[in-house]
Amino acid sequence: MYLEIALVALSLAILGVVIMFIPFVVQFNRFIRGLSTALDEINRELPRILKNIDEISTNLRNSSFLLHRRIEALDAGLIKIQSLLGLLMDLEAIARPFLKLPALRFFVTARAVLKGVRVFSTVLRGKK
């Protein structure tokens, strides 16, 4: 008799566990269906995503190549400007001793005097 009661109690316990396990199985089934839907969508969209990534990398490569070429062109222009400025500095170094000659200072002073005489004569005549 105790054996039969224990068997009934054990059967009820197993039935209770099975009943409690049903919501878990249903939720797990929904999760698997959702996962399957997401996987199908990823498989459907993946080629387009990969194509976009390929286009982006191609555009980035082309942009970096163009930028590199323009920087090289700018560098060449800057080298030319630098060499021109170096030439002007060399010419200034060569011309500096000649600028200290008295004859050159005389011409600069004479030009300033002539300009002053011209302004004086213009004011004297009344022209403005």
Task: Please describe what this structure looks like.
With 128 residues, the chain is mostly helical. The chain has one domain. It contains two helices and no strands. The protein has helices at residues 2-99, 102-125. It is rod-shaped, with a radius of gyration of 48 Å.
Percent in strands: under 5%
Give the beta-strand count: 0
Outline the low-pLDDT stretches: none
- Helix count, per DSSP? 2
Structural class: mainly alpha
The share of residues in helices is over 70%
Mean pLDDT: 89
Task: Return the string of H and E elements.
Answer: HH
**How far is it from the N-terminal to the C-terminal residue, by CA?**
139 Å
Shape: rod-shaped
Overall structural domain count: 1
Q: Please state the CA-atom Rg, rounded to the nearest Å.
A: 48 Å
Largest sheet: none
Concise structural overview:
With 128 residues, this protein is mainly alpha-helical. The protein has two helices and no strands.
Question: Can you tag this structure with a few keywords?
Answer:
128 residues; single chain; mainly alpha
SSE layout and pairing:
Elements: H1 2-99, H2 102-125
